[in-house]
Amino acid sequence: MILVLEMSKGWEIMLSTLTLRQLKNALEETRPETTALFPEIASSERWTRIRSDEQYKEFWEKLEKEADCLTDQPLCSPPFSDFLLFGETGDRATYQTKRTQLFSGLHVFGLLAMTDERPDWKKGLENTIWAICNEYTWVLPAHVGLYVNEYPNGIWDQPLAPRETVDLDAAVAGFALAEVLHMVGPRLHPWVAQRAKAEIERRIFQVYFNDATPQNWELKTNNWPAVCASSIGAMAIYLIEDSEKLAGMLWRVINVLRQYLSGFDEQGGTPEGPVYWQFGFSHLVYFAELLKERTGGQITMLDEHKIGKIAQFPQFCLLTNGKVVNFSDAPDEARFHTGLMQRLCEYFPTLQLPPDEYRMNVIPVSWVEATRLMFWSSDQQDAETEHSSEGQEGVQDRIFTGNQWVISKVLQPDGRIAAFAAKGGYNEEPHNHNDLGHFILHVDGVNVLADVGIGVYTKQYFQPEHRYETIHAGSHGHSVPIVDGHRQGFGRQYRSQLLQHEVTEDEVRFELDLTEAYACSTLQSLTREFLWHRPSDEASQLIITDKAAFRETPSVFQEVFICGVEPKQIEKGRIAIGTVEMHFSPSDWLIEVEEVTATSHYGVESKYYRLMCNRTCVSASMESPFRFVINSI
Q1: Distance between CA atoms of 153 and 130, rounded to whole angstroms?
Q2: For 294-318, what is each residue's pLDDT tens digit?
Q3: Helix pair 338-347, 273-294: axis angle to 10 deg
């Protein structure tokens, strides 16, 4: 990450050389009383215009109904028995659902209060903030004791509750509360405003800044450091007037964001995929804009080459019909925050806005997200048209060498879009699945060869002995071999090596060494080559060739393919999987198909099919080619 500091004398200082004194000077040169934070929502005229905008009519009507419900039936804190459920049974949803409802008043009444000084909405906001301040903790039960090495065990059976931490939900709630106080605080009863500030100080600032012990998430490169550190930094910008103190606080935040950005490879890719990209990166952008405003434009974190690469990442992950590349814990559909994307376009004009089917068409009941969606998207229709991409490119290829991903999208001769994606890496990535060598084959809105994606988040799901027995995260639920009865192992030592990658006019070649992915003592080598043949005048086809060598002949060797469409045998050696035909040597394989039902974290049940190919004649050296041909219509 490079931070450009435009000092009054025209200096430009990279983040790698930025000193605490320089940060302090930048903050002191611009007094907080002379700067406007998030100035877009400070304008009552813009609130009036957005309140009457037809495209937001349904959202405001929904908010008013929710406000009426919250007024008629005030929500109470979830009971202690619900708080204990995670420790006793692993259930997260029961407590979290009630907690989300309780906190929803902050967003509902906060947004409505910006449009109208109705006494009921002011009262509702005050009651909500008071109730939030009454909560035992803002941290979810699933995240209590994150810093304990035995987490999530060794916590719930102890006589004393663990010390406080800061998790995603505490950080996001604090961010929203600080911003609402900044905008609406003077209209609230002073006891409410002062108590809210005191609780942010006690629950966030004292926990994070008064204890040098690193938070669990500060050591990671996933979305957690981005969301938590950015939210804490935003709270500090809103609430801390002393520039010297603020500089010390933001210095810790900025260094955590450096750590977060180190998790992206040089092409801007993240192994978390596009959905968690949005959650983490959006909060970095929100913080960066506040810091820019607080320093009068002297510090900008976004106008930098690697940030531009990261901003482009999701556009390569878009397939068609709302589908995205969804390796690891992620749904196979995504909707992107239009306000976020348009703000990034201001820094990177060549950035393409997602097509309509990928845009967030339901405004979230979230102060931070909703305000930026409405206010950063408003008055941008010309830019939206100019930068929008409707998938008209004939070919779009991207290889992310650091994270060992390949994604290629091709316009077929018959006008459909086909896409291929595959991954390597290591089996201890953020939201890890044991999936080295796994791939997706997408045709015209359907993931024909698919990734099952995200499972139900429970305590057990985050314990390896349970997690990797599920169809979602275990290698048996991915399109990878089972080697002499061995599935892929979990841990950083189970990794792949990128042997070669090449993009030519008609082909993409991507080859991985998967030997280290398996704890199989007799395995000498295992490579997987993907050859994506995609000439402009022919239907595309994918040829996968696995080469395995053993020190002694294995007892079994199995290839598994995860299908999003039921496979049907046409004849020996040919299987139809929707719009794709799979070709293989019929004498080498016995075929089985297992139907499985997978339930996602969002409660959605989907059917998948494990197409299992059992090698009939096993030897110490085997080559296994499979060809997937896209049928023309």
Answers
A1: 33
A2: 998 888 889 888 999 999 999 999 9
A3: 60
